Structures are given as C-alpha cells and as structure tokens.
Amino acid sequence: MFELTEDQRALVDTVRDFAGDRLAPHALAWDAEKHFPVDVLREAGELGLGGIYIGEEHGGSALQRSDAVLIFEELAKADPTVAAYISIHNMVVWMVDTFGSEEQKDHWLPRLVTMEALSSYCLTEPGAGSDAGALTTKAVRDGGDYVLNGVKQFISGAGYSALYLVMARTADSGHAGITAFLVPAEAPGLSFGANEKKMGWNAQPTAQVVLRNVRVPDSARLGAEGQGFGIAMKGLNGGRLNIAACSLGGGQAALEKTVAYLKERRAFGERLADMEALRFAVADMAMELDAARALLRVAADALDRGAPDALRLCATAKRVCTDAGYRVADQAIQLHGGYGYLHEYGVEKIARDLRVHQILEGSNEIMRLIVGRQLLEG
C-alpha cells in the first residue's frame, strides 16, 4: 500500500545526499559547540526544504504530508536537532500559506521558503504548556493596531528568526479568545531570553520570547480574531507527523550504528553479532521502528486525504513513533556498552535529542488524551 513512487524515491535520494554531506559530518561538533547552522539551513532552503507543502506560486515544493515524513526521517538520520527545527519552520510557513492574506503571503513566503528568513512558533508560555488554552499573553486593540504583552517559553529559533507567529489572547476566556499574529523580529519591544541549557537539541537555540508593548498593525493578524487556537491545532497535526518522522530517523540511525558496532566488536572469543541474545535485541529494535513507520505512513495518508480520523491518527503516530525512536536509541547505548556513553560514538546524542520529542508538539500524555476523547466522545 505504501510502496514509494519513483518521484518519492528520487526525493529521498536527494535529501539523503544533502543530509549525508551537509549535516551528518558536523552533527557532533554542532551539538558540542551549541552551533545553530544558519548557513546550512539556507542551503536546505535552496533544495525546497523551507516550504515543503507550500504552493509553487510562492516558491514552495507543493509536496504532501506523505512526502514530508520521508524527508524528515532522512534529515533526522543525520541530525535530529536540525531536522526538528526545519519541521517547526515548515509548520509556521504552512500556517502563513493556509491562513494568511495575499498581502501576508506575498510579503513573507518568498523569504521563508528559501529559509533566507527563519521563523518561530510561539504558543507555549511559562505557565501554559500542555494547557495551551490557558495562555495569558494579551493583544489589546489600540486604534488600528494591537499591543502585545506577554512571555513565550521554549521557543526554537528565538533571537535568530525573522518572523514570530505569536498566539495571544484577544478575549477573556477559553480557546475562542486566542488570536494569531505575525510579529517581525524588528518590532520594538520584542526581546529574547538567554539560550536555554538543554539535555539535547543543542544545535538549535531555545529561549524565551518577551513581548513588552509590542505594537503591530491590524494587517499582522493571521486570520480573524478568535481563530488562533484552531490555526495552532491544525498546524500541530502536521508538526506531530514530522516530529514522529524525526524520531524514526534518529532511531534508525542508532540502530544502524549498533549493527555496525556489533559486527566489529568481539567478546568471549566471538563477534557480538553472533550472540543470540544480541541478535534478538537488534531484531526487536528493527521491528519496533518498522511497525511505527507503517503507522506514520497511515497517519500521513489520512491527513493528506482529510480523513475524519486524521486527528486521532496523527496523535497516535506522534505518541508511538516518539516512544519507539527513544527506546531504540536508549537500547543502542546499552548495546554499545561503555562506548555508547561516549559522545564520539553518536548514540548518546541521538538519545538526548529524541527525549524531548515525547514532550513537545503536545506531550505524549496529551496524545493519549486526544485519542481517548476521540474514541469515547466521537
């Protein structure tokens, strides 16, 4: 059912070559040095990776979600951190393309799809993570403008992005009171916190975005007042698939490193690869990734078709794939023994990077809540 087309195989080959040449050789150094490779992101943009499912009229690649998951798995085999940032950027670009006015699209999309301009998604706050409807950042009307005040937390690309898609409250209560705004980096009153010291994802900056009397015109509003929460949630469906794919890519890389290590390493007079218990272990790792990958393809196809169960399937795939990727990376450390704990072998970095995938884009506990609600409330 999900055999790749000739075009998809060519796409995967192109992305694999780029990732192998421009990401993989530098991933460990970028992690150690906390380097955000903006120049390489622009090279990715030249390949069309900054607007994967954006229409060609704005320079996008006009691909489907089923294509995107292939792309992000290949990118993450080389570096899950950079792959995840490209996913977040694409989520913002899709929101501008889908919900923006023609003026907004003409202004932002040409630079976003090439990644000449980077973008950040600003939903989470210090006191509002999984409970996104409890956000407190406010946007108050003042003549023909809005004045924004608040703090956003854990924002990827903060301080480097040219565009910040900010969710702010324009009414007192509930999801219906949330509106989306396109805030440019040069807006007076916009500032950033220090780069967070994190367990993983070191090759992309994560910081607070602080809005203090940030004034934007009415034309910066994305969609109508009160539509922001719906825009955010629709964007997250695709984002969850991409993060799931990033987890599979990282897990696959960890599996491949483990297979190579077991073939080379000897103990008790034989190769580790010839020990039955270790063969069972790598078999389980491969089976878990294969099963999760099949589910991800089903979910991506459902989102492409606009199927009624797409929300449930996206949440299911996000939970299953991110759990699978992390478990495989963790097992890879174990099968490498003491070497798995060393940075130079790369598997401990993969595990550190993939751990956050179980938390972001809606924690895996929230994915279970979504699926349970869909099943029991219809």
Automatic annotation (TrEMBL):
Residues 226-376 form the Acyl-CoA dehydrogenase/oxidase C-terminal domain. Its cofactor is FAD. Pfam families: Acyl-CoA_dh_1, Acyl-CoA_dh_M, Acyl-CoA_dh_N. Pathway: Amino-acid degradation; L-valine degradation. This is Acyl-CoA dehydrogenase. GO terms for molecular function: acyl-CoA dehydrogenase activity; flavin adenine dinucleotide binding. It comes from the Bacteria. Belongs to the acyl-CoA dehydrogenase family. Gene3D superfamilies: Acyl-CoA dehydrogenase/oxidase, N-terminal domain (1.10.540.10), Butyryl-CoA Dehydrogenase, subunit A, domain 2 (2.40.110.10), Butyryl-CoA Dehydrogenase, subunit A, domain 3 (1.20.140.10). Transmembrane segments: none annotated. Keywords: Branched-chain amino acid catabolism, FAD, Flavoprotein, Oxidoreductase. GO terms for biological process: branched-chain amino acid catabolic process. PANTHER family: ISOBUTYRYL-COA DEHYDROGENASE (PTHR43831), ISOBUTYRYL-COA DEHYDROGENASE, MITOCHONDRIAL (PTHR43831:SF1). Residues 121-214 form the Acyl-CoA oxidase/dehydrogenase middle domain. Residues 5-116 form the Acyl-CoA dehydrogenase/oxidase N-terminal domain.
